[in-house]
Amino acid sequence: xxxxxxxxxxxxxxxxxxxxxxxxGRGGWxxxxxxxxxxxxxxxxxxxxIWWFPGxxxxxxxxDERYSAASGAQVREVIFLSRHSAASGRxxxxxxxxxxxxxxxxxxxxxxGGIKGAVVPPNPRFASxxxxxxxxxxxxxxxxxxxxxxxxxxHGPTLSAPTMFIExxxxxSHWGRTDAAEAWADVISEGLGLDGGPGYGDWHxxxxxxxxxxxxxxxxGGGHYAPRHTDVLRxxxxxxxxxxxxxxxxxxxxxxxxxDPQTGDLPEGPxxxxxxxxxxxxxxxxxxxxxxxxxxxxxFKGWQRRAVIRLCEExxxxxxxxxxxE
Length: 326
Fold this sequence. Notes:
By secondary structure, this protein is an alpha/beta fold. It contains 9 helices and 11 strands. The protein has 2 domains: 3-204, AF0625-like (Aminopeptidase, 3-Layer(aba) Sandwich); 208-325, 3-Layer(aba) Sandwich (Rossmann fold), CATH 3.40.50.10700. β2 and β3 form a beta hairpin.
């Protein structure tokens, strides 16, 4: 069974379809049999498929397995082409991995897809594609207008394969921008080797020694757009797994006035489960790599920061500043 990268386009999403059109417009695709009433294409020279899914995707769990069952191809990774919505309406190019850490009750369906307390393996291409996206935005003349950022882990659907969303935002006036779509098409084409190049961001292509020397950032804390974690990606060549926002790390300080954050029981709250599942999922996507936590230190009170560091120590994850990822 052929192992493939699956690009998913959502028909009702104009920011998704404009990216899909940009890719198809570059040629090199053969149309294949439909899957679940959605058209599919297979690249002529690389193991990459496009699935033009006929509906919205956030609540469509198991799309990787469903495509595999219908097409006969084993999906090794998934990349959703998508729109980004934000109340600010600021134009943006952004990407993120998915899951719903920190929400409870664990196991219930989440508001925007996925399962509360569960995350999807992060796509290892996340960090390198962010860096290439910044370059592509400048090359296509949109960098001065668009925010160029990552987001923390959020929303569904639930899948088994390593996954990420790449997005054009943040309002209807930006979603159909072909210049933004062409910037993303550069990233996708080069990243997957559709242009005849070697591609980048493929963890499986590394040797054991290269993996052992690779630093993988687990971002903990900060706002939804993770500016301090983004800064690490800009300044280093590290890889990146889950990025967990402060809103997913709720913790309650013990009422005992003698409680010591260094030696006492860890504070209660969803934060412990959130960090555990994100650490486990990141390790799953980067076997043989060195996972290092990067804390947005200013987003924590002192006692919270010490509690997070203690948990990381229990999980055998070192905590480092920017220099640790160089």
